[in-house]
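Let us practice reading a record.
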Amino acid sequence: MSISAKLKPAFWDYQEGTGPFKHLFNFRRIWKLTVALTGVVTLMPLTFMAFIDYSVTRNAIKSENVLRMARVVSNTSSAISFFLGERKSAVDFITHENAFEDLKDPLRLAAILKNLQKAFSGFQDLGVIDSSGRQRTYVGPYELENIDYSNQAWFREVLGRGVYISDVFLGFRRVPHLVIVVKHDLPDGSFYLLRATIDTGQFSKLLSGLELGGHGDAFLVNRNGVLQTPSRFFGNVFKKIHLTLPEYSPNAQVFEDQSIKGVPLTVGYAYIANTPFILIIVKHTDELMKHWYQTRKKLLWFLLVSMATILLVILGVASYLVNKIYVADERRVMALHQVEYTNKLASIGRLAAGVAHEINNPLAIINEKAGLIRDIFTFKKEEVSDEKLIGLVDSILSSVERCGTITKRLLGFARHMDVSIQPIDLKEVIDEVLGFLGKEAEYRSITVDVEVADGIPKLRSDRGKLQQILLNLVNNAFQAMADGGHLRIKAYRYSADSVLIKVSDDGCGIPESDLKRIFEPFFSTKKKKGGTGLGLSITYGLVKKLGGKINVQSAVGKGTTFTIILPLKLQPKRGLAHASSVS
C-alpha cells in the first residue's frame, strides 16, 4: 500500500446517495471548506503581520541608506565648495595686495604663482587681462599671452558678477580646465581681471577618496547635465548623462532612478553653491539593500515554516473531525437505501406510463391492421389483391416510423448528446425544428415562412446546439405572438466565411429599456406566464460557443427580430463538449 493510500481519510472516496440533501453529506467538500476557512482565519493574521514587519523593516533600511547617502553627498559637496572657495579667496587676496603695475610684471606674477602652488594644490597658471579682454601678462605652461578673451562666455559673466567660477571647458589650450576670475576696479574707473586656471584632476582626487563600493560612482556635472569629471559608468568629460537632472535644492537630496538597462539606482545630489557644478553620487539599490535581502530570506523562511506547521495541524484536525462525522453518517446512509430503492421503482413506473401513452396510438393501429390482414386470409378464399395488402403493410410501417420519430425526438431534444462537429444542411435543421413545433403552429393558426437562399454551403458546426438555438428562438416567438401571428425565418450568405439567420415575429415586442438586459440570466418579460429568464441567456451562450454573434431589434406592438451570424466552419475549442449541459 502506498503512502498516499495510508494517509487518505476513509471519507475521501465516499460517494453519497441521492436525495435533495445529499450536498449536506459531501464529506470531501466539508473537509475542504473546513481547511479553507480555518486556514484563512489562522494564516491571514500571520501573513499580515509578516507583511507589516517586512514593509517596516524595508522602509527603515531604505531610510537609513538615504540618510547615509545624503550625509556623504553633503560632506563631499562641502569639501568641493571649500576647495573652490579657498582658491577663489586666494585669487581675490592677490588683487587686493598687489598693484596692477606689479601684476603686469611677468617675474612678479611668476613668483605669486609659485607661492600659490606651494600653499594650494591645483593652480596651473595665472593671467592678467585688461578691460578690453586682452591678456596682458601670462605665466604658465602654455603660450597664451596677448590672447583676446573678449568673446569668451566667462569674460562676459565676470563683468556682471565680479567673481566667476567657470564650468569645465577646452578654451584656447584645447585641454579640459576651469578658471577662477576676479574683477578688480582701478581708481581711474577702469578695471582688470586676474584669471587663475585650476586643474580638474583635483576634483577626481577628491571624489576617488569616497568609499562607494563595487557599483558606486561619483562625479560632477554642470547645470546642463554634462560631465565635468570622468565617470565610471556614464562616460568621460563633456558627455551628457542619461539620468534625470535633479531640480535645484539648497540641501543634499536623494532620489531613485534606473540605468539604461533598467537597473534600479539610488542617486544623491547637491548643488555646490556659487558654482555651476552639481555633485552626483550613484549606487546600485540592490547593493545598498544587500543586508536587507539576507534578513528578508530569514523572514520568508520563518513565515514558510510557520505556515507549513499551521497547515499540517489544520489538515490533521479537520481530517479527524470530518472522519467522525463520516462514521456517524454511515447509519443514515443504510437507512436511506431502502427509501431510495422504493423511490426508484416509482420513477420507473411513471416513466413507463408516459412512454406507453406516447406510443399507444401507433401500436393500436399496428394491431388493427395486422388483425385485418389475418381476417382477410381467414375469411376470403380467393386470392387477395396485392395492392390492398401493400396498403395495410404501409400503414403498419408508417405507425412504426411514427414511434421511431417520437423516440428520436425525445433523444434529440431531451437528452444531452456528445458534441459532434459535422456538415449540416441549414434548411434541413430548420425544417426539423419546425416539424417539432408544427402541431402548435397549426393549432394556433400561426403562419411560418422559411426563406433559405440558394448557394449556402453546408455548415461545419454542432448540430445539436444549432437545433437548440433555433428551437429556443422559435418557441420564444410563439409565446410572444397571438393566435394567427406570422413567423418568418430567413437565411443567406453573410460573407465568404459566415452565414446569417433571421428569426422575425409580429408579436408584442420588447420595450427598449429591456433590450440591453434581454440576454441576462433570469431576466424575463413573461415571468407571470411561467418564464424562467434562462432561454435567451442559454441561446446567447450557445451562439458564442459556435463562434457566432447574436443581436436583437424590437419595437413594442410591432414584433421582434433576432439576428444570428455563424461561421461556416467551427473550430473545435476546449470545453465545447460541455456547452449543451447549460441547457
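A brief commentary: The chain has a mean pLDDT of 80.
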